[in-house]
Write a structure and sequence with these properties.
Elements lengths: L5 H12 L2 E3 L2 E7 L5 E8 L3 E7 L5 E3 L5 E3 L2 E5 L10 E4 L2 E9 L6 E7 L2
Antiparallel strand pairs: 1-4, 2-3, 4-7, 5-6, 7-10, 8-9, 9-10
Length: about 120
């Protein structure tokens, strides 16, 4: 093992201590026949193993559609985590929407989610 592999192995061990299998749903769009697109039913992605954690100091973000929401939890995954803004997921205590994604480190992805009620 080289030194570059250590952080990713640590994230893998962190996830393995309390794994959660998340199934994200992603909105898809179809051609409306007039040069635009309309929403189609969401596409369910394959299950992915992550870790769900609470956030010690919830913060507020503004979504792409202008809503001001509070990040309630974080989804922690390895770099290959397939997640996009707007994805939704049922977690243990309700439905959540991905409103923030941090890919600043090459060994992990952190997706901030907010409750959808």
């Amino acid at each position: 093992m080289n030194v570059e592999q250590i952080p990713e192995r640590q994230i893998r061990a962190f996830i393995d201590r309390k794994p959660f299998e998340v199934v994200l749903s992603r909105e898809s769009r179809i051609d409306d026949g007039a040069g635009g697109s309309i929403p189609d039913s969401p596409t369910e992605l394959l299950p992915q193993e992550v870790r769900i954690v609470g956030v010690p100091r919830p913060r507020t973000v503004v979504t792409q559609d202008g809503r001001e929401v509070q990040i309630d939890k974080a989804i922690i995954g390895l770099p290959d985590l397939d997640v996009q803004l707007g994805d939704t997921a049922p977690l243990s205590d309700g439905n959540y929407e991905v409103v923030d994604i941090d890919r600043n480190l090459d060994y992990r992805v952190v997706a901030g989610v907010t409750s959808r009620g």
